[in-house]
Amino acid sequence: MIHPDTELRHVSPTIGHGVFATAAIPLGTIVYAFDQFEVCVAPAVYAMLDDRHLAVLDWFGYIDQHGTRILSWDHAKYVNHRCDCNTMSTGWGFEIAIRDIAAGEEITDEYGLLNIPEERPLSCGCPTCRHVLRPDDLDRYGRVWDLKVRRALTRLRDVSQPLEDLLDPATRLDLHGHLDGARPYRPVAALRCRRHDPGRPRPRRRGPAAGEVAA
Ligand SMILES: [Zn+2]
Questions:
Q1: End-to-end CA distance of the chain
Q2: Residues 6+ apart with CB under 8 A from 71
């Protein structure tokens, strides 16, 4: 589930749709949390999908550390990538605002933490654009991303958290144990999936689609 102070907007014919803040979302706010309505597709089921469902899942879904593909039921699946994103996945699975997000600003994410199995071209237009999203980006940039996440976590208890109750009890216990200094930080590398099921050949896309990687 995506933060309630967001809405879906059409960005451009090239980019498609994106998600925008309808109110200020401060640094440290949980912006996305897995919830019970999310569609979860195990590798064995993924391998059996027909091309229509495969295309949707490959485009809009993400892969968790267990290799399960997850398709959000709400507009979370339309969040675009930017290399200078304003939200980022944490090692606990939820996504957090890594800087203050102004009302009207597009919510953007780091797809390098979503276990994208293949290289994808990027055209974010951001000053520090990587131009290509690579499956091993986490190995290259994980330490930098951890610094951003850790900074955001220091504010987690200071800001309104409408999504925190969606975190499962074990995650909340571990998260708050870390914030109390009793448990270690969980690095973003915890999100890495080491078992990519190659599945079947993926359909080739003919052009840009909504939710494309900051196309
Ligand atoms: Zn970029």
A1: 23
A2: 38, 39, 41, 56, 57, 60, 61, 77
Give the separation between CA 39 and CA 208, rounded to whole angstroms: 24
User: 133 C-alpha to center of ligand 1: Å?
Assistant: 9
Ligand 1 center–CA 76 separation, angstroms = 19
Ligand 1 centroid to 201 CA: how many Å? 27
pTM, whole model, 2 decimals?
Answer: 0.90
pLDDT tens digits, 178-212: 999 999 999 999 999 986 554 444 443 333 333 44
Ligand 1 center–CA 111 separation, angstroms: 10
Q: What is the pLDDT of residues 110-165, one digit of tens each?
A: 999 999 989 999 988 889 899 999 999 999 999 999 999 999 999 999 999 999 99
Q: Are 106 and 124 in contact (CB under 8 A)?
A: no
Cβ–Cβ < 8 Å for 20, 107: yes
Distance 98 CA to ligand 1 centre (A): 16
CA 170–ligand 1 middle distance (angstroms): 34
pLDDT tops 90 at residue 63: yes
Give me ligand 1 centre to Cα 44, in Å.
33
